[in-house]
Specification:
Two copies of one chain form a homodimer. The longest helix of chain A has 16 residues. In chain A, helix 3 packs across helix 10 and helix 11 packs across helix 12. By secondary structure, chain A is α/β, with parallel strands linked by helices. Chain A contains twelve helices and 14 strands. The mean pLDDT of chain A is 97. Strand 4 of chain A pairs antiparallel with strand 4 of chain B.
Chain lengths: 332, 332
């Protein structure tokens, strides 16, 4: 087995975020569950919601792609696999991820549907409510996988959200097998509470089958996974099978459980909470970057907290400030 | 003559801004004049610069469109005329301006070129350097003008930038005639120093011909117009022909000259200067909104300063905060 030439290779939705402000009344009127992600199944459904939304900004997003953007900004060598269409938003997504130095080789997909977009409504409390039209992203097929790219990454990072559509789910299973065969580790994020509801058995099978080396979740997701209100029990039930379990707890910081040992970090203070989009993604970026840099679990948690704090201080799910400098200052 | 049912109707470039951070070295290497706007004449030229730029965000822009967005946010009744193509970015532009309640009826233009974009490089000092690919915007023709919309606006607001391409220049001349015939006022912004260089004689003809009721400029532009280094002389030479002349002076605030009288306002303080894109556009928005609300020239200047301060405190050229509330607090 050759040594990996990349730190992290991720597979995830290739999405452009469309971010607008909204009030609680709007969420109520549209029947949207605050803080959650719902799927929009047709272009018409996406169009109807978009038409009602306020003026927006567009920024490349996608959960795992945001994480990879963060790892790249922290100096990590990275690759990304995700499906865009041959359209303006697909072009934007590809530009942005390549501009960060990420190895992105997935060919564009011709014809309909268009590139995925996520209509994100940010309420005055900074919470984001996401409405995802998966578009081309849901047609990422096994044949689009760059096997060599997967083999080059020390860690393969997978996004639970992409477990929803059939073709990418099969592609991710194949990618895990490729990574395993090459002696690589597999990291996985549960993504969203409703996503866990939809795929609880699959996710538990992956975990209990020993297929996950590093698991990321938030408090709601890990409780949902084990259908319990007992946070500690949920973490322990996961850590029994997963070498490294990382759970974010919003303003209460985050913990990691490694074997019997629990590590914790407080949330990094922010001057003003603007938009929580990307908080979990950037926490994962900081933690993973710490791990591939050979740092301790504790320092990796600190890196996660610093990156999450940066991304929630502005609109958009990718860092604007120099997070490598922020991390260096924090760990100095 | 019927009373106007709209406050401001603007004609301008229909552009989506593509905003990325860059350092001074990048501007130097690309031969770009900091703070200025240059035109990119081919899609290939735009593509080459885009490929070299960092990860970006996209937000609807266009100078006069930004002004209209600001007037609408301040409660003004507005309309906009500008040309987009039938593509994703054109759809984004139309969505965003309509979401603000702006009457935007210009039909999309089929085929090439695509919707205009402005590649904006923001340096760490907050200055923006703009590189505009005019795309569909340069093909706004007289036949696309909504005559009824122009007649409905108390003030027709025109963007100097749009004087560059031939068809929109003719369209703007026709729009001015329509507005005049309906008994409306005409406001005009000089837009950019290099733009003034390209069209000095035309702009002076408009001014000396008494075709402009309200003129907006910054210090560099008004000096360039009269080819002088003497700021006061340049303002006086303009005000001799223009009833209301408004000149912004960056961190030194702004002045208005009305007849023999000069009014001034200091720049509104900002916690952190992030991105100066849209500063002049939003100053114009505040001033125009004040005028159509029947406020004094002095209070209109204050409104301009408040709006400009808001827009330079974040990325993007349109307001994110509730500028109507900020203005109300300031004038309370």
């Amino acid at each position: 087995m050759t040594a990996p030439s990349l730190d992290i290779v991720a597979i995830g939705n290739a999405i452009v975020d469309v971010i607008a402000q909204a009030d609680d009344q709007f969420l109520h009127d549209e029947g949207l569950a605050k803080g959650a992600m719902q799927l929009l199944f047709s272009p018409e459904e996406a169009e109807m919601l978009y038409a009602k939304m306020g003026s927006a900004i567009e920024a490349s997003g996608g959960s795992a792609a945001n994480t990879i953007a963060g790892v790249a900004a922290l100096g990590g060598k990275t690759g990304f696999i995700g499906q865009v269409a041959n359209d303006q938003l697909g072009h934007v997504f590809a530009h942005d991820i390549r501009a960060l130095g990420v190895d992105f080789t997935t060919p564009v997909r011709e014809g309909n549907p268009p590139t995925a977009r996520c209509l994100i409504l940010v309420t005055p409390d900074g919470q984001r409510t996401m409405n995802t039209f998966l578009g081309a992203s849901q047609f990422l097929s096994s044949k689009m996988l760059d096997k060599g790219l997967i083999e080059r990454g020390a860690i393969l990072y997978l996004e639970g959200y992409l477990w929803d559509p059939e073709e990418p789910r099969a592609a991710m299973r194949e990618a895990m097998a490729i990574a395993r065969a090459a002696g690589r580790k597999v990291a996985f994020t549960l993504s969203d509470g409703f996503c866990v509801d939809r795929h609880r058995e699959s996710f538990l099978d992956l975990i209990r089958g020993g297929e996950i080396d590093i698991l990321f979740a938030n408090e709601a997701e890990i409780k949902s996974l084990h259908e319990t209100h007992d946070f500690e029990a949920a973490v322990e039930a996961t850590a029994a099978y997963v070498p490294v379990t990382v759970v974010t707890r919003s303003e209460n910081g985050a913990i990691a459980m490694v074997g019997d040992q629990i590590y914790s970090v407080p949330a990094d203070p922010v001057e003003k909470l603007v938009d929580t989009t990307g908080a979990g993604d950037l926490f994962a970026a900081g933690f993973l970057a710490g791990q591939v840099q050979g740092r301790s679990v504790q320092d990796s948690l600190v890196m996660g907290a610093v990156c999450a704090a940066e991304v929630i201080s502005h609109y958009g799910a990718r860092p604007e400030a120099d997070i490598a400098a922020l991390v260096a200052a924090k760990l100095a």
